[in-house]
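Project channel, design review

CF: Before we commit to the Chryseolinea soli constructs, I'd like one complete example in the thread so the newer folks can see what an input/output pair looks like. Taking histidine kinase.
RD: sounds good, go ahead.
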Amino acid sequence: MSFLRALIYSGAGFAKSPPDKRGVLLSNAIALILFSLSLVATFFYFIWYGGNIVTYLIPVIGALALVVIILNRGGYINFSRIWISLLSPTVVMALSIYSKWVYYEEQEELDYFTFRIVVLGCCVIPWMLFSFREKTLLSVAALGGFAVLMAHDPLHSLFGVPYAQDRLKLMNYHFTNVVIVITYFIMTSSLGFLKWLSEKNEAMNEELIVDLNQVNFQLLERNAEIEAQNAEIQAQSETLQVNQEKLIDANRLIEEQRGRLFNKNQELESELIRKNKDLMETNAELVKHNNELRQFSFTVSHNLRGPVASLLGLLKFIKPENIPSDAAEVFAHIKSSTLRLDEIIRELSKIIDIRQDIFQIRQKIHLSAELNHIHKILEKEITAHNVHLNIDVDHCPVLYSVKPMVHSILYNLISNAIKYRSSDRVPVIEVSSAEEPRYFVIRVKDNGLGIDLKTHRENMFKLYRRFHHHTEGKGLGLYLVKLQCEALGGTIDVQSELNKFTEFTVHLRKPENVKRQMLLDEPYAKIFFDATVNSTGVIWRGPISSEQYRMVFSKALEFLQVYNTPNWMSDVVHQGPIAPEDQAWLFQNIIPEASRNGLRRIAFIRPDAHDERVISYLQNIQSEVKQLNISFRPFPSMEEAFDWMMQENEKATLYS
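CF: and here is what came back for histidine kinase:
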């Protein structure tokens, strides 16, 4: 059996797919079957007809089928199947012709049917060996066998051994061709349909196997994940059990502490009630003292300002050369003390102004110009002490804030840096600026005496606190700076190291709207300040009365006197008619005073500014203001007036 199995599986290793392997195995099996049947046929042929040339040719022809096994073993698996598919009907047909040619005179009707039936049987071999995917090989083998089958009578006639009807008894012999063809198609179509079903089921089985393998692979992966999760859950369960034990202990401890805490809370609640009562009494006392202090500060800063100014005026009339030598020193002390008193009163006045929230308008401040102005004020001290003032404001050259306050902050920080310089090195003061999303940042750093922040940080910005007593000072400067920073919505911070450096960092909040800062908002008029072009303006919502007209311009003049804005915009589109006496009042009282306080440009907004009927009226206004060195231009829109003022400001900066 092992030998027979080895013969059947010859060449199976060369097959690339299951159908190919099946074809190889079938071809080997059919070869063995044909050889075996040839031996059986030889035996029975010998019994019936005795020994002759045909008897001995049958086993030889059967042996040719064994060539298939040799071809498959050599790897010629396609050629071997073609070989047995075409060889079988061909050699049977050849044996039929040869036997009739040798024994033609002795032929019987049966001789023309036996070989033909064998050829018909051989025609089904290709349908067993080839699959429908091998269309070319199947077509060649099947058509070759069918051609041999249909050429039975023509080939016998060709070789001179046709069916002799004059000697043989079967009538209508050629009708057997119809029977043979019908039988052929019954056999091949049935076998072909069976093979189609088999291959279809085989393809479905292959797909199912692939799907099954994929599902199995996914199940294996899932099982691996589940095993890993189980292991992790097991580990977590052990950890959870340990944590639960710890949690039980912790809860027990918490309950104990909760009881202690409850008792402590009871004690603290009683203490808190007592403290709140004391705090309310203290707070009421503080409010009373604070009001008294504000009233006192107001009285000192305002009521004493007149007498001190008078005293300073009287001191100016006294000539130093008329004072006796023994009284000169006393006079000098009186004068310096009076000046110091005047300075203190001014500082207190600023503090009160800040507390009363007078300064609200944000102006456009050029830091380099402001620092140059401070440099001129402190030029005497800077030159006397050889101070190096390094300025770097390129990162934030312009900021929007209250100009007097920014000036005061910079002046106090720089003057403090000069005042508290170190005698061991050349004084260096660095002023820089930066910009953050919500703040303008100013830094002032010096290499002076420094401050011991561990000792003095809590008292840094308190009133009348000094940290170096060998220099003159009143302890107001840093307090005023902190007050101004907070009034501007900002902060001040300090970093210092004793005898090395001090650096103050000021954060000033950016204003939300600098173009339309309202100074007056009434139904009939709005006074605004535009910091981007340093301009005051009014938008009229008339008609207006004489009283309203004069009140608006009086308010505008008050603002201009404080901020000295060089530009003025007046939107008179909805102003309505103005009485001649009110216009005369404007040009006689308001415009001249505004000119003395820095007004240099007026923009007049009227959509009909270029109308010929309006030009003469505007020319009269222009002639009036020109005498006061004020430029006057009419514009049809606020945007054009804004652009003109921007250009004029740039020119003024360029030529200043």
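RD: helpful, thanks. The domain at 517-655 is CATH 3.30.750.24 (Transcription Regulator spoIIAA).
CF: The chain has four domains: 2-171, 306-355, 363-509, 517-655.
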